[in-house]
Amino acid sequence: MLKTYDTVILGCGEAGVFAGYELIHRNPGMKVLIVDQGQDIYHRSCPIVAGKVKSCIDCKVCHTMCGFGGAGAFSDGKYNLTNEFGGTLYEYIGKQKAMELMRYVDEINVACGGAGTKLYSTADSGFKRLCLQNNLHLLDASVRHLGTDINYKVLENLYAQLKEHIDFHFLTPVKALTILDDGSYQAETDKGTFCGSKCIISVGRSGSKWMESVCQSLDIPTKSNRVDIGVRVELPAEVFAPITDELYESKIVYKTEKYQDKVRTFCMNPRGAVVNENTNGIVTVNGHSYEDPAMHTENTNFALLVSKHFTEPFRDSNGYGESIARLSNMLGGGVMVQRFGDLIRGQRSTPKRIEKGFMTPTLAATPGDLSLVMPKRILDGIIEMLYALDKIAPGTASDDTLLYGVEVKFYNMEVALDRNLETPHKGLFVIGDGSGVTHSLSHASASGVYVARYLAEHE
After folding, report:
1. 213 C-beta neighbours (distance < 10 Å), count
2. Fewer CB in a 10 Å sphere around the end CB: N or C, the chain?
3. How many CA atoms lie within 13 A of 49 on its CB side?
């Protein structure tokens, strides 16, 4: 069976969703197909999130990472409107255009169920001066926090709109992508072969290995990206309340004295919960938070990450991160947790020590010793950062502060793209985190809108 479309979108994470949204709004008569290896938004259900199991059972397709909305569907729904972090989209399309598109995405999210959620901003914040006084640097951003609950409703509303105009095929992994003699693109799946005059690849981070294979088969140049390795910190919400009440999400960067490495906070979840995440069969840690006060916890969590860039001849930055995560899985049977006091004293945490502490973990992780898992240079940087944060948020470096490991942020190889996010093959575009260009919900969504507008204008 062969079906032909004007545009075929492979993957329906945030980038693919907003590419589809913009295509049908700009050109309602366009025939658009979106395929994804995961489920639609109504049938995505992680057994861990649903409380059916305590640890990952390696589902054939990870509901947390794949399906309508991609990894963003079960995130805490933070859209950072900034060029300071979240990717390098602005290097391709310009800073002004990137901000314009991120604001446009924010307007759509608000209209589709996000009305009433708050837009936080670091502008004119006195907290920035406090950071500078303590050798910390607060990055500028506006942050829309939808929460995991509202974010999911927004995606449900978007899907309800899109399915009336777009053909969706879920549970449909693409086995091969080929270029036909007429310059169109053919996607081969178990449910048939689909052909598009134009093709947009939007496979996200979970499709990193598939993206690499496509680049190899189509001779698309790539270059190695970085990998972020660290831990997720959990502490009483009151410790960071002066910061999170004003800014909600604060991206703070610290340069270590020992190695001059940069350590940064990431994905801050006030009164949230620590959760498992499965990437290509490897269990790592992440965090969620909710807009609904009834879902709030007594704790705040955030990641501390160290970025590692590698030079030739080594190119497999993701493989390096995976090896560390696999070691944690081997020793802890999944995610490992350790009290900060135990780490400093060189002793492993035990269930008894965790229980006697003043912190109640929000994730059932295995008590252990992170120094047996994390590279010394990275762990030293994280310890330095915790002491630095303790100066602006006293209590951060408490003995009972919990560190979950490991948290790894994998980035796709950077794909060779022009200013239209088009590959060397005319009509083949790569958007979102699968391109290696974007690293956030807002940047990924904006990249989808950008390519959709280009296609609508040049149809």
Report:
1. 13
2. N
3. 19
